[in-house]
Specification:
Layout: H1 2-16, E1 18-19, E2 24-25, H2 41-60, H3 65-71, H4 74-84
């Protein structure tokens, strides 16, 4: 959920950089989704280190199959709907 929020934040930053009233594109367009920008050797080393850390964290991340199963299970959504919008008037009590 944190990653999805982060991607939505970056997408909204990109949308904000387009000015529809004056019909122009601001100078900040394209900066939110920039994967790397190498202007010196130290910048290249920083980006290599960052992407190495991301790969290492991905390899050691816990298995997410239970989360995927819960999110894409039809019965789980029906149960969630029953708890959130109860038909008997008992909110959040089951």
């Amino acid at each position: 959920m944190i990653s999805a929020g982060y991607i939505i934040h970056l997408l909204l930053d990109e949308l904000y950089s387009v000015d529809l009233e004056n019909r122009r594109v601001k100078k900040s367009v394209g900066t939110a989704f920039k994967f790397f920008s190498v202007s010196s050797n130290i910048d290249a080393i920083k980006y290599i280190f960052i992407y190495f850390i991301l790969i290492a964290l991905y390899m050691y991340a816990p298995d997410s199959s239970m989360v995927k199963q819960a999110l894409f299970n039809h019965n789980a959504w029906l149960n969630f709907k029953d708890v959130l919008l109860p038909y008997d008037g008992k909110w959040f009590i089951h």
